[in-house]
Amino acid sequence: MRRATLLVLVLAACSTPDPTATRREGREAPAPAGAKAAPSEKDDAPPAPAPSPAPAAVAAIGSPAPDFTLPDLDGKFVTLADLRGKTVVLEWFNPECPFVKYAHGEGPLSKMAATHTEKGIVWLAINSGAPGKQGAGAEKSRAGAETFGMAHPILLDEDGAVGKAYGAKTTPHMFVIDPEGKLVFRGGVDNAPMGKLEGEAQPWLGRALEQLAAGQPVGDADVPPYGCSVKYAS
Amino acid sequence: VPRVPAAALALGLACSSSNEEPSARPRDSAASPAAPAPTDDSEVEEDTTNLVHVEVLLAAEDELAVRYQIKPGWHLYWENPGDAGLATDAAFEGPPGVTFEPLRYPAPERFVSPGDVHSYGYEHETVLFARFALPDPPPEHSKVVAHATWLACKSSCIRGKADAHIEIATATPADDTLLVDHREKLPRPGSELPGRPAWAATETGRALTVSIAGGELVEFYPLLTEPARLERTDVTSDRLQLHYRVAASDLARVRGPQGVVVIRNPDRSRSYFRLETPWPTT
After folding, report:
1. Do A160 and B114 touch (CB under 8 A)?
2. Partners of residue B2 in chain A, C-beta under 8 Å
3. Any idea which of A37-51, A157-171, B245-259 has the lowest mean pLDDT?
4. DSSP 3-state of A185
5. Burial of B231: CB neighbours in 10 Å, binned 0-12, 13-18, 19+
6. What ipTM, to 2 d.p.?
7. Which of B60, B18, B247, B73 is nearest to B171 (CA)?
8. CB-based burial, B16-55: b 16+ in 10 Å, e otherwise
9. Predicted TM-score of the model (pTM)
10. How confident is the model at residue B45 (pLDDT cuts 50, 70, 90)?
């Protein structure tokens, strides 16, 4: 079984790049992206909810955010569509990426999620690392959450379909979805990778959330991300 | 470490150069059956100490060179790392009165990772150059420390730092064979670029078109130009077109070079130029 899985992984790595081919082949359940990758072989994991097809194109600012259903570290599924009516922040996550360690340690994400969650915002970390890659999987995510003192859910997207649907390139790459379900921000937390400011300080994510809370349009809605590359399988 | 079936290993080696980061998969690894299995597990478990060795050399009478020797398979980043990564850096600390110019980076290579992540950097080795000036009279001691920092990535990314030092008054200039390949990749001034740049207004901002004469355009490495954001780059053999999203009200705040242009000369050698066309103000 282990040998067969490895063979599939290697073959998958050889396939031609095709955004529609990111879902792992050979699994029977056509559940939404990531749902198949429920935390490590838990027999008692709840069954995957009804499938929702992975979007083909990368999400655009002002357009409906791609829906997804992904498991958290306890195997509980979270569906974006169920969060309609709330502002949702997506944070691409790799607990072993130096940028994530910095951001959650001394950096800008150390208290930001907790502060905004208190105000009613839903904050979800998503780990799109493929099995075996740096920081991937439930175990490492859980260890990271403990180290960083993260209270918000971490969702697993091990086949990377959700990450690619959003065009998530780095960890931490941030996305904001408004209460109507539209994507209203994507980019870096700020313009200071690892705390090193590039020009005039731009607290992009914080400002976007403030503008959204005030009912204003997000000024800088599409800004450059920074960080480690998301450790996709292919 | 899980055992990898031989067939899978062979397939992995055979296809590794096309789908993975080129840097993470040296092409010649396929030639050696004893090469480590390119599984994800091996990358995570690899010994990641001593990924980079740093030394500082005297490149010329008034110039220092910080040399980064990089473990095979790993890479460091250019001054603009691209979609992911972090600029390799060195901060100098010397006797009072000694001044250092900003670092000069050789033109990088492009790495493409899964997820269409484009980054720019160096494999194997790179050298960053910095000119310095001594005060008059020269200082009594001449020790200069280079505080080098970097992010090294393969499949994983590891942050690193090291200090290297040199006595600038007594050091012998380094053997130029160590530095020549890197020095040749230092971009020449934009005024020497064999091309005609022209700006045009677009729906979302401004587009810069550069027609190249006397060589073949092979690559463009962008620098950060916030608040103008490069949204699309079109490269043909004789024309570069850069589409920037920028609000008219922000134009006055945009400055700095657009990037580095690489041109293949008729004799197949390559030349490197800064593209530093003045930004339109209206």
Report:
1. yes
2. 2, 6
3. A37-51
4. strand
5. middle
6. 0.76
7. B60
8. beebbbbbbbbeebbeeeeeebbbbeebbebebeebbebb
9. 0.79
10. low
